Amino acid sequence: MWKFEGQEHIYKLIQNSMVKTRINHAYLLLGPEHIGKTTLSLEITKFLHCIDEIKPCQNCDQCVRINETNHPDIVLVGNTISEIREIQEKVSLSPFLSNSKTFIIHNGESLTIEASNALLKILEEPPNNVTFIISATDEQYLPSTIASRCQKLELYPLSTERIYDYLIQHFDISNDEGKEEAKLISKLSKGRLGWAITAYTDTNFLQTRNHDISLFDQIINGDMSERFLLSQQLSNNFNKNKDNIYTTLETWLSYLRDIMLLQTNSHELIINIDYEKKLIELGNKFELSTIIESIKV
Fold this sequence. Notes:
- By secondary structure, the protein is α/β, with parallel strands linked by helices.
- Helices cover 55% and strands 8% of the residues.
- The mean pLDDT is 89.
């Protein structure tokens, strides 16, 4: 039984390949960050190595070892040339506990040029009992020579309703406050289940988001000197923690997008549902063309 929500099209493809004994030597998982590529790569690995009739069973020695990350035939590979060179030796070795070996490479877009060239040599003439699972946010960030040698498996965003239902069931949410939080997070997730799970379990998530929205309000309503001071603070913090700044900017863009949606009478599509009243007020302040230009920038 697949221990993963959604992406049924990928399950079917892998299962059909197994039935026809046509498992590919390399798979490329494509999708935005936090959509579930890491989890799915492990589920595919369990399916390939599971010894039960119904795969992946989650209970056999192979599945348990993969879950506990101590399977000797499953290798998590880094993105540097030295790490790729290490597996050049390992691919030719016989499996220890299974009939095959699986090499997993996360964030394939981070491979250096030298590492990409070394990996390409392996993919050009792979051993029969070896499978590579590579994940990336977008195919365009990988060398075309590597992408062309992989079977592409694209992960699609889940519906807001499906993510909400998953959060309710997985975290056993029964109180109204918890349901409202799950509803908000499922809207904000943009179909990324991994992101939704992380956001729901992170006690600081909503507090950080509210702070980002507060900064946005200061920029909109402040005078020129206040805006300059805030922009200078963001610039200074960029080199210290780029991820936090990107998250802040993403929150601001979603806020602007919601204002535009409200101005076009698309209330059901907004994601910052807890700020709808304030969004309407801001929408009355700005022309639609101004909002669109802000999003483009």
